Every structure is written in structure tokens, then in C-alpha cells.
Amino acid sequence: MPHHTPLIGTIVAGLVVAFIMGAIAHRLKLSPLVGYLVAGIIVGPFTPGFVANAGLANELAEIGVILLMFGVGLHFSLRDLLSVRHIAVPGAIGQIAVATLMGMGLAHYMGWPLMGGLVFGLALSVASTVVLLRALQGADLVETRRGRIAVGWLIVEDLVMVLALVLLPPLASVMNNTDAAGGAGALLAPLLGTLLKVAGFVALMLVVGRRVIPWALHWVVHSGSRELFRLAVLAIALGVAFGAALAFDVSFALGAFFAGMILGETPLSRRATEETLPLRDAFAVLFFVSVGMLFDPSVLIEQPLPLLATVAIIIVGKSIAAFAIVRAFGHPGDTAFTIAASLAQIGEFSFILASLGTGLGVLPAEARDLILAGAIVSILLNPLIFSIVVRGHKPEEEEKAPEKPLMGHVILVGYGRVGKLIATRLAERNVHFVLMEGDADRAEEAEEAGFSVVRGSALEDRHLLAAGISEARRLLIAVPEGYEGGAIHDHARRLNPHLQVIARAHSDAEVAHLEGLGVPHVVMGERELAAKMLALCGAG
């Protein structure tokens, strides 16, 4: 008999099945979220076979929520929001209101309580950050005016949902005790108390947290320990979230969001993102798996009409509302269609709201199932909807033929620590080169430095073609992951078999992998450092 604990069994089953289903989803060019949700259904109690421990899965999911919200705060950009505030703020609030009312209307028809209808409507009103950004990146729209409006719109939606997560528990308490003695004043006391606690927490974070957190991280950086820095970031995310819940009785989500937002204002935000991303991704996967475990597939057969109505609200109802709002503010049709298509899906916050609603006892189980089913269907359909809408409404300036690429130029992939040094040296030597960078902040930094930049992944042929891969002479792969570099090499050599490739590696295994793929020149940083130090001491 295997000696394992329910915790280990739940983690192993969740991650292994999520990997398999996520890989299948990726192969089918679907969002990995679909695979993770299906993995949860497979290991859940409503399907035959292994059943993971739901209680432990929910606790692991709480860590996932904390790290997800920490990531939302870390990437919160007040600058992006302010640049499109005139349309994003009123537009997002108006669209949330319309979608929530439609959801409450369906809930009333289903005979659910008022609070259940409110949670259900809110869950249908907010789009997935992951799905929206993926759609915009796939169409090269992130840096366009309509792309910035869509991102700003989503930021407002996220802020509204953070507020909803804070206020729902006391509001549910008020609504569940409407018949209690003491009058309206006594019933509103929990709500006002929560607002005061939130205000106290926010004040403490703005006054103390903005000084202590950056100071602590800078001290850790000067210690020179990468491991300690990674641990410090995780301690801040989890510690602030838990401390907020313990001392101020506010949600983990709010605490984690503020911790990420404050950390995002420091120069160390990018490094913090990179260091915590693997653990954040792992627990986020467990969160989506735990959500899938709650889904009862029988809703597809037993409630087809309510499911159809739910999907219609997500894809049709709130998209029409968004389109009408954008047009009412005087923006062109292509912008309105892009925003409408971007928002025609739901995701992470919808799951968090559904879990909170069921935990508070205000959201019926069938409503949660409809939310999960609606999310799966909308995420599956969104890429198709988005591609049709964007292809049919591309403005003239985006249809102009690209400038003729340089002949015999160099393509540099990556603008990290090594890529920056290479780019600077190439510029100093007047070497014609094009830089490829998928990270928006780094790409912007490179553009500000005066370099020619193609924004996007070098693993996609269209971005390589935009960089002039067919006419390029050399390809310098400066990304830190050797295995990713190997995949880039394969894509590039398929488009230009005569390309000279120089790649970067971090280990002997990566060197062997790259050389096995036929990369002619592989540079391993440690070897070069050792050779240089030996040469300087006369032992080279």
C-alpha cells in the first residue's frame, strides 16, 4: 500500500492531470485555463476514478488566490489607466452594471435570492486578464490605442472586483439578517465596520508599507542572496495577505493586491515578478483545478436553457453593452468591436467570486455550475470571435505594408541583462540590427533607447518575419533559457536555413541540447567568466 498523505495525493493528482490537459489545450491552440479546469473536473467528485481531497484543494486554492492577486497588484499600472481613464473608467463601470443586471434578471427567473443574483451577475461581468492579454498579443494590439483601452478597461474591472470581494461578506451578513432585531442601523453596522477596517488597512499600507516593503527588499538585494530575495517576496505576499485578514479582518485578496501594488512601484518589481512567477503559476494551476472540482457536468444536460442564457449574457449581452458605450464616447467602430470581443469571456475573478459566494451560502450550487460552464464555453469561443472581429475591422493604418526590412542585418532576441549589453555594443559599432522582445516594459525601454524593436515572441513565425528573418545574416539569442533558445533556433532556421545563429546557455545540459539541435555557436556564461578570470591571473 503506498504511503502518501491526502495533501501529497491532491497536489500530485492536480498538477499531473493539469499538465496533461493543459498540454492538450495548448496543442489545440486553446487557453491553458480550459485544460486546468477540465483537469479539476476529472479529479473532482462528479466524475469516476480518483477523487482529490476537496478540503485540501480549497486551502491550496487560497494560496493560489493570494498569489494571483499579488500578481494583479504587481502589474497594476496607474499610468496605463490614467491614459485612457475618460473611456475605461465610465465604460467598465457601465458595462459591469449592465451585465450584473442581466445576471440578476436570469437569477430572478431561476428563483435564486437577491444576493445570489448579485454575485452571479458580478461573476458574469468581469473578463479574464489571461485570456484578454493573450488575444491582444496574438493580434499585435497591446500597444495600439484600442489595446490600451482594453487593458485600462480590465484594470477598472479588477479594481471593482477587489472592492466586491471586500464588501460581499458583510453585505451577505446584512442581507441574511434582514429580519433581525435592531433596525437598519444595527444591520448596517457590519458593513460600516468593514469599510473602516479596510480604510485602516489601506492607510497603514500607504503610510508604513510604502516605506517598509521597499526598504526590506533593498536590504535583501544588498545581501547578494537570490534565494533570500525570492523568499522575501513570497513572505511579503503571503505575510501581508494573512496579516490583513488577521488584524483587519479583510480578505486575503485585498492584502495580496496591495502588497503587489506597493512592490510594483519599486525598481525591483520586474525582478520580483521573475523570481515568484514559477511558484505563482503552480499555485494558480491548483486554484483552477480546485474550481474545476466544484463543477458538476450534469448541468449541461439538466439545465441547457439556463446555460445558453448564461453564455448569451457573457458573449452577447455584455459585448453589446461595451460596444454601445465605446461608440457613445465617440470612438471608432474598430475600437468598439475590439473592446466588445475582448470582454466576451470570463475567468479568474469569476471563479473567485463564485467560490466566495458559495462559501458565504448566498450563491446556489447550480449558479456556480453555470458560471464555470459559461467560463469554459466563452474561453473556448473567444479566440474565434476575436479573430473574426479583428480581421473584419482592422483600421487602414494597421493594414499598411510594413517597411522593407534591412538586408543582411542582425536579429537580437531578448533585452535582458545580456541583451542590453549586446544591443549597446552593436549600436556603438554601427551594426544594423532589429531587437525582438516580448515583455512590454523591456520593449518600451529598448524603443526609448532608440533601437528598432519588434514586440512579440520569437517563437512565432509572424514576429520573426516582421523582424526580417528571411533577409537576416545572423541571429543572436540572448534569452536566459537555453531550451527556449533551442526552440527559437528551430523556428528561425526553418524560415532562413542559411542563418548564422549564436545562442546563450546556462549549463552543460543546455549546451549539449543546443549543439544537438545544430546551433553552431553556443556561449555559456560560466565558461567565459572562468576563461576571462584565468586569463587575467596569467593561468589562461
Describe this structure in words.
The model is unreliable at 396-402 (pLDDT under 50). The radius of gyration is 25 Å and the shape is globular. It has a six-stranded parallel sheet with strand order 3-2-1-4-5-6, sandwiched between helices. Helix 20 (440-448) links the parallel strand 2 (433-437) and strand 3 (453-455). The termini are far apart. It has helices at 6-27, 32-43, 54-74, 78-83, 85-110, 114-125, 129-138, 145-176, 183-223, 226-247, 252-264, 269-293, 299-302, 304-328, 333-342, 348-359, 365-392, 396-399, 417-428, 440-448, 461-466, 482-495, 508-516, 525-536; strands spanning 410-413, 433-437, 453-455, 474-477, 500-505, 521-524. It is mainly alpha-helical and 540 residues long. Helices cover 72% and strands 5% of the residues.
Give the tags.
about 550 residues, mainly alpha, Na+/H+ antiporter like fold, Rossmann fold, six-stranded parallel beta sheet, 24 helices, 6 strands
- Please identify, by name, the CATH architecture of the largest domain: Up-down Bundle
Assign the CATH class of the largest domain: Mainly Alpha
**Extended strand count:** 6
Largest sheet: 6 strands, parallel
Mean pLDDT across residues: 84
Number of domains: 2
* Strand portion: under 5%
Report the total helices: 24
Low-confidence stretches: 396-402
State the gist of this model.
The chain is mainly alpha-helical and 540 residues long. Helices cover 72% and strands 5% of the residues.
